[in-house]
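Entry:
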Amino acid sequence: MRLFYERYVGYLTAVCSRYVVDRSDVKDILQEAFIKIFKGLESFEYRGEGSVRAWASRIVVNDSLKSLKAASRLTFVDDLPDIPEDDAPSFPELPPAVVQEMIKALPDGYRTVFNLFVFEKKSHREIASLLGIKEDSSASQFFRARAMLAKKIKAYLKEHE
């Protein structure tokens, strides 16, 4: 178990941190997730290294979403005007840490939908089901998150010319 923990703690911390900004919350979520993982390892059907990583990631993502919902921090903003597609980001060569901080700075709802769509490869239908929102709301949150990131990227690039 210790080897498993040491092997995956860094990766799973990064996964959790995509959804939850507060470091102490991340630690709490990971603690609960590792308990679930260790309890479920006996019944897990090993299909290669990738299957273990995907299974553990799914547990961490689900626990992160539960935490956001329980804290009532998962709010979705629908009263903003849509931003033209021209403003969508085209992630130029930015340091990964900078991009990660930009994503972390998004409102919880935007960040959650963005992460589920981009990193977890979920469809808007799946995201809507996971979060208890309409499919159109998921698409709208993603669209607005992209637009907000585009503005942040433009500002960063302008500042670092």
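The first helix runs from residue 2 to 19.
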